């Protein structure tokens, strides 16, 4: 099998690019992800690239200059056009901090080393990856680095070891693959992005090319070709990004791809399906479609929010149109042109990208696009509200690690902010739902005497109970809290927690140590509420003034993301995208019925007609799920101050 152009490979490219595209769009059907293994489309591309590049180097034997020029002509025009357009849309849609992140991605994409930039960020499957405009260029980095070295490998083998071509490529394949497995054990993100840990897939394509040159037809060809396609389909549909990859997961996808390339013969059923006009169309524009799909998806998320299935259909049409126009009127004409003046166009794009990159640096992400008011508002969203309050005197987490934040300190090292003798005192007690008030209360004038006993997922209880799998130490925290509260002079106690956690109550060992496994015996919600009531009764008996924070309304969107998305507008306005949580408020009131406590009712102030505020003129009212932001907490500061004794 030694055809110059194999049209069925365009069909395979179509499968690869569409699977990656659907994966990045996070499409689901009845809650089930479509093409959950779509990320493996890149592995298919790697094999195809290794197959084709090995063929070019062996059959055509271009000079190094000819080879690199052909790669520049093939890859750079469409890439630079996409980067040029991405810069324009980044200027329109990205806030300064996000644009500065884009700037780093731009540097890596232009110089083909973005894989090593992303290697030191969150993993490929992290939620943050949905907002990385040029994330997909990591694979171009791997391929270009392969192009730089592979001609020397091929020409070196041809000159000195021409009779051992296949054996040497197999050795290189094995070395790279086992290095990949080794790196997976150390750091799977490094293994994912590392060129030495990925190049085995390109070597696999090279081995397939060498085998194909002397492979004879067989009666089993159609079966093996179909088997390869079945393997590919299985990988794309059933594997998940949480599976350990690259490695054996990728190896199976690579194996399926090699079977398809080796055994798909002209006029077979698989060949006819792979060479349908629509298959060829998507295969031909696959490079452009791969380049444009991620920026289109991410810019939509920045501009309008999450992508549903219906929205995706419209975006898919836009992707196809832009990819076709790019291929038809830019990529293909420049690639085929013999006029060296075409490089002036590429030079213009490179200079524009450099200017954009430098401009972003010297203007702090072109921050002049935002009003001063919006810039000030965004400062309150740089980190979650419940961890903003910090102290120069460091405390300790339960694990023994030093910590600056006043949240999640063991109570004996709690933050204490003293003022004069006549100032009112307040203790923040509970979890992050009360912790969101710590920073804004520390700013209050006249100064308050403030003690921060808030600890993530840790309501104040009087019994050995824990409620969150990430914080099994709750009972140890509460024992320390009670020692402090029992010695404290009567004062104001701001008590808040995520009461939803009371559904997850479990019995705790009496003495829990870090790293141990706690008990799994479940406790009914009613028992947790009883323990909570006992705690409030005890506070009252100690002479304290409990102020109970009821549950905040529940937003339907990630308001912190919405805040950033809307921040290029001149000002904010009221929006009502949260739902009341009065059912939980009623549970709390019933649990504390008859006790002399004050309730801070958030639903009463934030809701009307079953809709609740998520934005006001200052900005977003939430920062991290159902947690109030600085502006959300601001709504209730005066209510809290009024009831202090």
Label this structure with key terms:
single chain; alpha/beta; 645 residues; 55% helix; Rossmann fold; 6-stranded mixed sheet; elongated; 9% strand
Quickly describe the structure:
With 645 residues, the chain is an alpha/beta fold. It has 25 helices and 18 strands.
Helix share of residues?
A: 40-55%
Which structural category do the helix and sheet elements fall into? alpha/beta
| Low-confidence runs | none
Question: Strand order, biggest sheet?
Answer: 5-7-6-9-11-14
Oligomer: single chain
Largest sheet, described in full?
Answer: 6 strands, mixed
Q: Work out the strand percent.
A: 5-15%
Helical run tally:
25
- Number of beta-strand segments: 18
What is the radius of gyration computed over CA atoms, rounded to a whole number of angstroms?
30 Å
Termini Cα gap: 89 Å
Arithmetic mean pLDDT: 92
Overall body shape: elongated
Describe this protein's structure.
It is a single chain. The protein has 2 domains: 8-368, no CATH class; 383-555 and 580-608 and 636-642, Rossmann fold (3-Layer(aba) Sandwich). The strands form 7 sheets. It has a 6-stranded mixed β-sheet with strand order 5-7-6-9-11-14, with helices on both faces. Strands 1-2 form a two-stranded antiparallel ribbon. It has a two-stranded antiparallel ribbon with strand order 3-4. By secondary structure, the chain is an alpha/beta fold. The protein has 25 helices and 18 strands. The chain is elongated. Helix 1 crosses helix 13, helix 7 (165-186) runs antiparallel to helix 9 (199-214) and helix 10 packs antiparallel against helix 11 (248-263). Helix content is 55%, strand content 9%.
């Amino acid at each position: 099998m030694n055809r110059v152009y194999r049209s069925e490979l365009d069909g395979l490219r179509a499968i690869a690019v569409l699977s990656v595209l659907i994966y990045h769009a996070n499409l689901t059907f009845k809650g089930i992800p479509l093409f959950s293994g779509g990320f493996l489309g890149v592995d298919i591309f790697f094999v195809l690239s290794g197959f084709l590049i090995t063929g070019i180097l062996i059959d055509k034997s271009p000079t190094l200059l000819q080879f690199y020029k052909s790669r520049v002509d093939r890859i750079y025009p469409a890439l630079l056009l996409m980067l040029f357009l991405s810069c324009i849309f980044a200027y329109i849609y990205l806030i300064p901090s996000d644009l500065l992140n884009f700037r780093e991605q731009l540097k890596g994409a232009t110089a083909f080393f973005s894989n090593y930039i992303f290697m030191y960020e969150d993993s490929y499957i992290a939620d943050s990856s949905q907002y990385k405009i040029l994330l997909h260029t990591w694979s171009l980095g791997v391929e270009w680095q392969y192009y730089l070295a592979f001609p020397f490998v091929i020409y070196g083998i041809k000159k000195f070891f021409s009779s051992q071509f296949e054996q040497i490529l197999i050795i290189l394949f094995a070395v790279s693959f086992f290095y990949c497995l080794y790196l997976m054990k150390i750091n799977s993100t490094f293994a994912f992005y590392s060129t030495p840990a990925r190049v085995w897939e390109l070597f696999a394509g090279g081995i397939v090319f060498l085998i194909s040159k002397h492979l004879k037809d067989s009666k089993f060809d159609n079966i093996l070709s179909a088997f390869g396609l079945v393997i590919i389909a299985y990988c794309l549909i059933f594997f998940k990004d949480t599976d350990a990859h690259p490695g054996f997961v990728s190896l199976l996808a690579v194996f399926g791809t090699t079977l398809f390339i080796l055994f798909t013969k002209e006029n077979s059923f698989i060949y006819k399906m792979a060479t349908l006009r629509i298959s060829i169309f998507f295969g031909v524009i696959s490079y452009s479609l791969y380049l444009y799909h991620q920026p289109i998806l991410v810019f939509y998320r920045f501009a309008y929010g999450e992508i549903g299935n219906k929205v995706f259909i419209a975006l898919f049409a836009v992707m196809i149109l832009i990819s076709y126009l790019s291929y038809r009127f830019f990529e293909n004409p420049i690639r085929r042109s013999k006029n060296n003046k075409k490089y002036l166009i590429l030079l213009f794009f490179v200079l524009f990208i450099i200017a954009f990159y430098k401009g972003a640096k010297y203007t702090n992400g072109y921050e002049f696009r935002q009003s001063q008011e919006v810039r000030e508002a965004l400062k309150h969203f740089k980190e979650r509200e419940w961890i903003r309050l910090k102290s120069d005197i460091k405390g300790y987490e339960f694990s023994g690690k030093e910590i600056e934040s006043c949240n999640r300190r063991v109570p004996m090292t709690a933050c204490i902010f003293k003022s004069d003798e006549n100032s009112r005192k307040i203790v923040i007690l509970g979890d992050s739902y009360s912790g969101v008030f710590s920073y804004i209360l520390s700013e209050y004038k006249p100064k308050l005497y403030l003690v921060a006993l808030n600890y993530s997922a840790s309501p104040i209880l009087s019994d050995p109970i824990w409620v969150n799998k990430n914080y099994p130490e709750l009972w140890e925290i509460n024992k320390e809290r009670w020692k402090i509260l029992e010695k404290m002079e009567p004062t104001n106690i701001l008590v808040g927690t995520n009461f939803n956690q009371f559904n997850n109550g479990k019995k705790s060992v009496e003495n829990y140590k870090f790293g141990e496994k706690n008990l799994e015996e479940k406790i009914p919600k009613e028992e947790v509420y009883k323990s909570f009531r006992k705690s409030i009764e005890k506070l009252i008996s100690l002479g304290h003034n409990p102020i109970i924070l009821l549950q905040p309304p529940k937003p339907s969107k990630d308001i912190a993301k919405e805040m950033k998305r809307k921040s290029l507008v001149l000002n904010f306005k009221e929006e009502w995208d949260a739902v009341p949580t009065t059912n939980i408020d009623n549970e709390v009131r019933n649990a504390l019925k008859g006790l002399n406590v004050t309730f801070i009712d958030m639903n009463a102030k934030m809701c009307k007609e079953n809709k609740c505020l998520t934005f006001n003129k200052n900005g977003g009212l939430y920062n991290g799920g159902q947690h109030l932001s600085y502006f959300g907490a601001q709504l209730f500061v005066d209510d809290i101050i009024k009831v202090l004794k």
